Amino acid sequence: MHSLKFNNTYVTQLSSLRFYSYVKPAIPLTNPYLISFNDIVAEMIGLNKSSNLEDLLCANVLFPGSVPVAMIYAGHQFGYFTSQLGDGRALLLGEVVDNEGNHWALHAKGTGPTPYSRGGDGRAVLRSSIREYLVSEAMGYLNIPTTRALSLVGSKMAVYRETVETAAIVIRVAHPSAFVRFGTFEIFSSRGQHLEVKQLADYVIDHTHEFYDLRDKSATTKYSEFLIQVARLTGYLVAKWQIYGFTHGVLNTDNMSILGVSIDYGPYGFIEDKWKDYIPNHSDGEGRYAFDKQPTIGEWNLMKLVTAFSSLVSDEHYTVVSNMYWKTYEDHYGELMRKKLGLVTFLYSDKLLWEELLELLDANHIDYTIFWRKLADKNKDSTYPELSSWFVKYEKRLALEASYGQRSRTERMNKINPKYILRNYLAHTAILKAQKDDFREVNKLLRLLRRPFDEQPEMEQYSKKSPEWAKKLVISCSS
Question: Which segments does the entry list as coiled coil (predicted)?
């Protein structure tokens, strides 16, 4: 009935004695019900929607060909090394191949205990599952590399966190290598299992398009260039986060994908009227993972990855990888920032223009997303009188663009400056309704966030600043 084509390379190419544990969900999700089904992602992987999908989408019943495993890894968490982590509440259900030969991993979150649960119940709550489901799609349509979300299934099964909540399961979809983390290499390196570091690197290289060019290279260059490519992918990702004001919240090395995609959404947030020291995670008291610290943390995590490859590359790679990361980050950030400003030519002095602007936005508590969207408006000067001196410089810079730069500027700017983002209060409102069995807001936001750059007049209220009460929202790590 469900003709997904499974080809489980992670299981067939790597040993269960080291890289994962076979797990069959032992405790079914009680009376599951489908809250939302992402037809676009389903079509992408070749899954047709039909009745009675709930049991398959919460792993109560396995798809034919599915071989569920829990992946093992370690990680630096808030700067301190934890020697063994792993999929404590998630399962790699398997890999499917679409009609074009692309591989997609189905990764279910909230399926119950695994050998890596460390005493936890292995469940995810409805609250955090809604947040992950929605932001996965929001990021995808902002053109930020991310895992996608296939489905959201709910249940009345009780889950005990700060309060009693109900269980839910999200199936995440991405290339299989996206779920290989920096920490997956760290666990083997920390144990002196250098052969496993090499085997895992070879697996990723042999099965991932971004690394195909390295397959036939000698051992002396293959792993060196692998790390350099990971640095590029990571720099590209972090630049995208900074451009759109996204803050991950928990940038541990076990939450960093080797493929440079956003994974493991917990206490995330988009900046609004403050970007300096913005911290969405109430557990991050020192602000280690604040919005403006993300670029530096990206490099810090890469240095831990280089350490994990110390048996395969020389010490000079700390500098090589760092330089590549920062070059990629700064080049891509600059390219995107010029587009946000509506510029088509390059001047070194442009950096001073956007740096001054960012300082003014922060100092004057101006909403980040709304400002950028309004920047293309003819009456922007009167909307933001506190920026009047900056606008004089901006207009002079625009005048240097000549006529070809003037044409269609508004249209170009509106293709990179979104009108709609997933503000925390929007997700919170959808959660409150869902907890009363009203899931219409979840699906309404899903539709909204698929068109973040479009005007959508009927959704105008979703583009407004967050209300005052929303400033008191606390996003928890618990899920």
Answer: none
Of 35-44, 46-55, 146-155, 392-401, give the lowest mean pLDDT range: 46-55
Reference 399, options 335, 342, 331; nearest CA is 342
Predicted confidence (pLDDT) per residue in 378-410, tens digit: 767 778 999 999 999 999 999 888 766 677 889
Give me the helix-helix angle, 126-141 and 440-449, nearest 10°: 20
**What is the reported pLDDT for 381?**
72
Tell me the pLDDT tens digit for each residue of 182-240. 999 999 999 999 999 999 999 999 999 999 999 999 988 999 999 999 999 999 999 99
Cβ 205 vs Cβ 211: under 8 Å: yes
Question: 411-425, pLDDT tens digit by residue?
Answer: 999 999 999 999 999
Q: Which residues pair with 152 in a beta bridge?
A: 36, 170
Q: Retrieve residue 284's tokens.
A: 């991050």
Residues belonging to the chain: 479
The token pair that represents 38 in the structure block? 């992402």
Token pair listed for 122: 């292995």
Distance CA 351, CA 336 (A): 12
Q: At what angle do helices 424-434 and 126-141 cross, to 10 degrees?
A: 140
User: CB-based contacts of 197: which residues, under 8 Å, 6+ apart?
Assistant: 185, 188, 189, 308, 309, 311, 312
Q: Which CA distances in Å does 163 have to 24, 118, 129, 160, 400?
A: 28, 20, 16, 6, 59
Question: Is the pLDDT assigned to residue 51 strictly greater than 80?
Answer: no
Q: Are 247 and 289 in contact (CB under 8 A)?
A: yes
Half-sphere exposure (CA, 13 Å, Cβ side) for 82? Answer: 20
Closest CA to 344 of 405, 265, 418, 253: 405
Does this model's pTM top 0.70? My answer is: yes
Contact of 270 with 421, CB cutoff 8 Å? yes
Q: How far apart are the first and last CA of the chain?
A: 33
> Cβ distance 95 to 104 under 8 Å?
yes
What distance in Å separates the CA atoms of residue 440 and residue 163, rounded to the nearest whole number? 24
C-alpha to C-alpha distance for 318 and 296, rounded to whole angstroms: 14
Name the amino acid, one letter, at 68: P
Which residues are tagged catalytic?
A: 254
Torsion angles phi and psi, residue 307, rounded to 5: -60, -40
What integer best gives the mean pLDDT of the chain? 94
Chain centroid, CA 257 distance in Å: 9
How many Cα neighbours within 13 Å face the side chain of 28? 11
